[in-house]
Specification:
The structure holds two protein chains of two kinds. By secondary structure, chain A is α/β, with parallel strands linked by helices. Helix content of chain A is 40%, strand content 21%. Chain A starts with 5 loop residues before the first strand and ends with a helix. Chain B has twelve helices and ten strands. Classes of the chains: A alpha/beta, B alpha/beta.
Chain lengths: 290, 285
């Protein structure tokens, strides 16, 4: 297997509170993420998942441990400012509040902000802006004013601003938390397209279990460490452990577990509503044959 | 006959009226909220629900129509609108950004103090409010900025509960919280409702939370009330909810998938408990 895109080894991070006491957030976090993966990170508030994301593109610096991106140690003291900029171009980050991420008064100018700062020729900037708008399905809004857009649309513009930097990996730090259901659906669809069609590695932090159900891989962070790591089906089949970490399972999964506890034999996956329906239908059909 | 706590009578509200950017946020809305119920307000972004929430406690004034609290127009004496805000408590979105005092206790006490209550009464109300939201006495002496996100949110809610409002209005109280934080805050609201008999209105995008906590549901769509009724009735019309740009609970989605495959299950199921009963029955248990 090729070298992982992101290698995190024994990462520790703590901050000092007002009384000067060290408060540990990450304790010995170790994991690998491969190129092209779609990873969802879950964990209760305060588990350290956002801190982890901020360490990945050097908004924060680790106390100890290593992060290798494409083999390069970003925790090394030799990192220059240029290295940091190069890293942030490689790994883009989308935050929770869309209003805090838009800088210009016209959508296409906002998306051009990053590429302009790279000093690219104007034809190249034009090409990247058009491409980024298309990637998020917002081409029709190029000349609009961002503040008149809905939350979901604003968030897609924020994503386009990152796409225009041509990143290899994107981190979404609860980027759907402030959106309404239709805005959330649009943003998730956009994220999935970026992963599948443009091969961008996606790391999404969320509290929504149904978003996690659609990822390739789910990582649970608890108490600053990796507590669970597997496919959505592997993770959500362990409802009791999730509850210990302050997390839920999707409602369909909960239903299947309860029916199994009543002695009904239900074989098959049960993460998305579609899988649950398949599993229930198969069991009912089997029952009919007996 | 149920008592009516709050009524909207032909209420309209328009932003940027008379300009090319005119947006109708509420268009001739009339409705009654029953005393002592928990009502959920849902609707896509821009459907008018946040405007409606700000009307209930007189934060904005309707351009047309009246808002009645216990049958009395809240704008009858505009100079006394401040008194309405003690009776109708509004918890805005992300209220934790509004904490400002040196200690959690002082922050919760801010509202009751403005009501002109004496110190003993303020102390007892702060203690009571902290109990409702599950903040321990040790937390009360801390700076609000040393609390976790979920705890801050609960401290902000306690600041409103300490005024013992007859009506408690909350705009997305659980947004951005993890499952435990969400349950803690919603249970706190329900505890207060049960003990005080207050009327509660909750704006939320989470159909799962609505299904669990609300008696009645209002569905807003394009500045109008599209549906209003007991939750059973509303969730039985899931196709209309989807049509209004809303989600349905995951469990209801599953039930509808089963129905579409010819399995005969009740279409109005919206909780895991009910789904479990229905399917156990189907499997002959």
């Amino acid at each position: 297997m090729s070298q992982p895109f992101i290698q995190v080894k024994n990462l520790c991070y703590s901050y000092q509170d007002d009384d000067g006491r060290e408060v540990p957030v990450l304790r010995d976090l170790t994991l690998d993420i491969h190129r092209g993966e779609y990873v969802v990170i879950l964990g209760h508030n305060g588990s350290g998942k956002s801190t982890f994301a901020k360490l990945l593109n050097m908004i924060l610096e680790a106390n100890s441990g290593q992060i290798l991106i494409d083999g390069k140690d970003i925790t090394s003291p030799d990192m220059t400012d240029d290295d940091v900029f190069a890293l942030r171009r490689k790994i883009g980050m989308v935050f929770q509040n869309p209003d805090n991420q838009l800088v210009a008064t016209i959508v296409e100018e906002d998306i051009a902000f990053g590429p302009e700062n790279l000093g690219l020729p104007s034809e190249e900037i034009r090409r990247r802006v058009d491409d980024a708008l298309e990637a998020v399905g917002m081409t029709a809004y190029a000349g609009h004013e961002p503040h008149r857009l809905s939350g979901g649309q604003k968030q897609r513009i924020a994503i386009a601003g990152i796409i225009a930097m041509q990143p290899e990996c994107m981190i979404f730090d609860e980027s759907t938390a402030m959106l309404d259901p239709s805005g959330r659906r649009d943003v998730i669809k956009t994220i999935e397209t970026l992963n599948r069609e443009r091969d961008i590695t996606v790391i999404a932090i969320t509290h929504y279990m149904n978003e996690a159900a659609r990822a390739d891989r789910v990582i649970i962070i608890n108490d600053g460490k990796v507590a669970m790591d597997g496919t959505p089906n592997e993770i959500f089949s362990q409802g009791e452990r999730l509850a210990q970490y302050g997390l839920d399972v999707p409602q369909g999964t909960a239903l299947i577990h309860r029916l199994r506890e009543r002695g009904i034999s239900l074989d098959g996956d049960c993460t998305t509503p579609e899988q649950c329906a398949d599993t229930i239908c198969a069991a009912l059909a089997g029952k009919g044959e007996k | 006959m149920d008592q009516i706590k709050i009524s909207l009578e032909h209420v309209s509200y328009t932003y940027s009226k008379g300009t090319p950017f005119e947006i109708k946020a509420l268009d001739d809305v009339s409705l009654n909220i029953r005393t002592g119920t928990v009502t959920g307000i849902i609707g896509h972004t821009g459907s008018g629900k946040s405007t409606m929430v700000q009307l209930f406690n007189g934060l904005t004034r309707p351009m047309e129509g009246r808002i009645l609290l216990d049958g009395v127009d809240i704008w009858e004496k505009p100079k006394e609108i401040g008194k309405i805000r003690f009776r109708v408590g509004l918890v805005m979105q992300y209220p934790e950004y509004q904490l400002f005092e040196e200690t959690v206790e002082a922050d919760i006490a801010y509202g009751p103090r403005n009501m002109g209550l004496d110190e003993d009464e303020i102390r007892s109300r702060v203690a009571e409010a902290a109990r409702f939201v599950g903040l321990s006495p040790e937390m009360l002496t801390k700076s609000p900025f040393d609390l976790s996100g979920g705890q801050k949110r609960r401290a902000a809610l306690a600041g409103i509960i300490a005024m013992r409002p007859e009506v408690l209005v909350l705009d997305e109280p659980a947004a951005g919280l993890d499952p435990m934080g969400r349950d803690a805050i919603l249970n706190g609201i329900c505890e207060y409702q049960k003990e005080s008999g207050a009327t509660v209105l909750i704006v939320s995008h989470s159909m799962e939370d609505m299904a669990r906590y609300c008696d009645d549901i209002i569905v807003m769509d394009h500045a109008k009330v599209r549906m209003h009724g007991p939750r059973d009735e509303i969730f039985a019309r899931s196709d209309e909810l989807i049509d209004a740009g809303l989600d349905i609970p995951e469990i209801t989605k599953l039930i509808w998938l089963l129905r579409s495959r010819g399995i005969d299950v009740d279409r109005s199921i919206y909780t895991v408990d009910r789904a479990e009963q229905e399917l156990a029955h189907l499997f002959g248990i």
